[in-house]
Amino acid sequence: MVYTVMKTQNILPPHPQAQFLPTPVQRILPPHLEDEVLVKMSQQGDNTAFEELVKRYEKKTYNLIVRMLNNEEESSDVLQETFLQAYKMITKFRGKSQFYTWLYRIAINNSLMRLRKHKHQTVSLDEPVKDDTEEMPRQIPDFSHNPERNVDTQEIKQIVVDSLDKLPDDYRSVLVLRDVDGLSNKEVGKILKLSIPAVKSRLHRARMFLRTELSKYFVEGVKQ
Amino acid sequence: MITCKQILLLLSEYFDQELDPVLCEGVQLHLDTCPHCLFLVDTFRSAIEISHSFGDTEIPREVHHKLWEIIEFEIHSHQMITSPVRRIQGKKLRKPRKLKKIR
Fold first, then answer.
1. Which residues on chain B are in Cβ contact (under 8 Å) with A185?
2. Predicted ipTM?
3. Do the chains contact at B9 and A144, CB–CB below 8 Å?
4. Beta-carbon neighbour count of residue A33 at 10 Å?
5. Does B47 touch chain A (CB under 8 A)?
6. How far apart are CA A206 and CA A185, in angstroms?
7. How many CB atoms lie within 10 A of CB B102?
8. Closest Cα in chain B to A74
9. Of A53, A150, A221, B22, which has the fewest CB atoms closer than 10 Å, so is most exposed?
10. Residue B40, phi-psi category: left (phi > 0), alpha (psi -120 to 50), beta (remainder)
């Protein structure tokens, strides 16, 4: 594919028929145009409108992909794939959902494909949720009260990132979209094509898992 | 009366304020009397809050540049295929039909 070649060379190859290309007209779009309008303009061939959509969502989409993959290099590739696909398929977008929901779906699908390519070990969350508090020693520090006071925030975030990595892909995508990106259950359901009860169930299990992982970390802290 | 086991299953919905008001009240009553579950609830809440606090990091400059190179390239290639200039040139370059030989 074109972008793979470009990536290895790290330069944009001159197009063989560059002399015939129409000179790009730099247009300035009116500010605060809604996504819907920009999408319609893009569908009618207005590339400036599409570029505006890329500007709006590149950061959010990149962050989503990084959290899914936990790998910067691969995230860069998936980000490119996502926007290229969006550009090619924008005419097929019917506008039944928000543009970002559609874009996130592409990003999540591409990320999941990457993850499946390099299968890594994850935990199983299919068993019923157990009350792990019974097994926990009573001296666990209560990390609920301002953990920043005792432990480096970056360190805690790293625990969360590592825990996300252990989660099965389907659970990870729900937790990332819902708790990290702050989308609603309905939006998550639309992106992942899941019913709301299914989103809730996966979210609950993923949260319980995350809580347990954080508790383990704090137990180790106590032992030390 | 809600049991500890039920609390465990209702936690997520309780935090997302999606519980039926009667159930929600039941959960609160249980938490008032059960330190075991209160501890569970506090740490559960904290795990969610940590996830919420991540925030977006800036996209690295190199990643940003690569993305825009590719987007621009795709847009230009697409313009070249669909632009009227090329179509006209295409017509000019088309081979003329072969004429039948007149005997």
1. 16, 18
2. 0.72
3. no
4. 14
5. yes
6. 14
7. 4
8. B63
9. B22
10. alpha
